[in-house]
Amino acid sequence: MSARAAFLVVDDSRVVRRLARGMLEALGFAVSEAEDGARALDACRAAMPDAVLLDWNMPVMDGMGFLRALRADHPSPHPRVILCTTESEIERIVEALEAGADEYIMKPFDAGILADKLRQVGLLPEAA
Prior knowledge:
5-stranded parallel sheet, about 130 residues, 5 strands
């Protein structure tokens, strides 16, 4: 990925979007935001990002609805999708991965956890 790869942060919480934006921009990503899955899908159809940090539980269109619609339009591996949520049951994690998520991150998370997940999906180089 280039140093200015595009990232879309999708979360109904403005606070979470801003925190994630700050972490991702510090890692060199260009970041845009959407507050629900429907707006995120519109954003992706207008200009496909390299990666999406996606909340599960949102109004209008939830993360799974967005993920299924995105993957119907654009099968893996592009864009990379990291589902970010409080959902912790193994069945839900499997559901997300089977629907096309590349990785899964639990809230709350910090910059180190986020960077590790980005390395796992190839969005950041491995740490030295």
